[in-house]
Amino acid sequence: MYANFMAHPDAFLAITSGATPEERMIRFVEYYLTAFHEGRKGAVAKKPYNPILGESFHCTWDVPRDKVRPLRTTSSSPAPAAAHATQTASNEGLGSYRLRFVAEQVSHHPPVSGFYCECKERQICVNTHVWTKSKFMGMSIGVSMVGE
């Protein structure tokens, strides 16, 4: 479910803390892997939004600044976004970051879901579309997540 991609908004916001491109890439992979888990919390699958009716989902999170993990390694040259965020945090005290999320099903056939999430304070956003591809393999079913 694409809602699982924001199950850990603190991991998403931590991406900009990387001082080097490699650190930011590692942070992104950590965030991306938090979205995948086996099973479902509820017993019933949820119905997707109806694009014909214009249904969409909007929400925001206020993520406390102290919940966004600091860097594991140090570097002599911090990333521009990280330096800006550190300066903003020192100017505003602990407070929180505002994370905005919009999701909708953009197509019924094939069923494609899309979402957009941004945090202006951390200068980061993600724009995604995903769908599942299913196939029957004898006694089992294979499901692949496809998209960008």
TrEMBL record:
A Pfam family this chain is assigned to: Oxysterol_BP
PROSITE patterns tied to this protein: OSBP
Region (Disordered): 70-90
Molecular functions per Gene Ontology: lipid binding
Gene3D superfamilies with a match to the protein in the record: 1.10.287.2720, 2.40.160.120
Biased composition (Low complexity): 73-90
InterPro entries: OSBP_sf, Oxysterol-bd, Oxysterol-bd_CS
This protein's UniProt keywords: Lipid transport, Lipid-binding, Transport
UniProt key word Transport: yes
Any single biological process term in GO: lipid transport
Family to which the UniProt record says this protein belongs: Belongs to the OSBP family.
Name of protein: Oxysterol-binding protein
Natural source organism: Cirrhinus mrigala (Mrigala)
